[in-house]
Amino acid sequence: MFETVRKNHRLRPAIVGLCLAAALTGITACADSTPSDSGKPKSPGQSSHQNSKAPAAVKPSASAASLRMVANGDHSLAFHVTPGRLPALVLDAGGGEDSSYWKKMAPDLAKRTGSMVVTYDRAGMGKSDEVPGAWKVENAVSDLKAGLTQLGITHDVILVSHSQAGEVATYFAKENPNWLAGAVLVDGSLPEFYTDEETARIEAANKAQVAALKDQPSTQQTRQLLATAEGYGPTHRAYHQISWPRSVPATAIVSEKTPFETPEDAQLWRNAQQEFVKGAPNRDLVTAAKSSHDIAGDRPDVIVTAVGKMLKAVG
């Protein structure tokens, strides 16, 4: 199931957040860097600052993204900031991906919306420091909060979160609802999906895959995969009990193909997205037609449209 790391090709992660679930159906990629035209799947709340300017921490005269290294405890994280007005769009990639996942969409959104656009590398990815031990969503939330605090962006934030980043977004929203103007969850990993039965099936199906991964050479990628796999069951049983704050508007975009190949698991994924949207009147469901899990690669227009509608809704 696991692939070795090949030159100029990212490891297609079968066990990164959502990808661990996808392994049930034999999927070897969650967020794949292969272009979508190759035929292979790649891997509204009212704002109180309607016309805010960019925080002083970021120079509004710059036209291109600038790299800002921020510290959280004993490690540093890479944030890429394109100046603009608030609300700020914070783009968070899925499991196994870093900020480069948004390399085409980030400048396009900045140009179309005039908003500040922020992408970043979670710990152990891209230019951010590696942190030993199991991956914990609480640590990821702490990193994101530290970065936005140091950038001076502590209100009027719209999260655009793909796949595993949906978990980070959910915990962040629960802890910091007043920071957020809204969120666009791009085939996001949502609490509703992780019933006890589904989580148990995922754990059982991946024992052999985890063992195989341990036999591979230790690289940054394999270490991140194993860190995500460690404690997966308890982590997601706890996640199933978490709920998105009703005060924060959200749009859930679900891919037509979903991350799964079997009809049963694909329908469970769709049901979870629908259940999430039914949880509050300020949530919308959008289906990305003809898209794999890699909606940013296959149907970027769907994300751009959803972001535009969210910005209009929040003022």
Automatic annotation (TrEMBL):
PROSITE patterns given in the database record: PROKAR_LIPOPROTEIN
Signal peptide start-end: 1-31
The AB hydrolase-1 domain, residue ranges: 90-304
Record keywords: Hydrolase, Signal
GO cellular component: membrane
Pfam families for this protein: Abhydrolase_6
Gene3D superfamilies: alpha/beta hydrolase (3.40.50.1820)
Region (Disordered), start-end ranges: 31-60
Family annotation (InterPro entries): AB_hydrolase_1, AB_hydrolase_fold, AB_hydrolase_sf
UniProt GO molecular function: hydrolase activity
Protein name according to UniProt: Alpha/beta hydrolase
Source organism (scientific name): Streptomyces brevispora
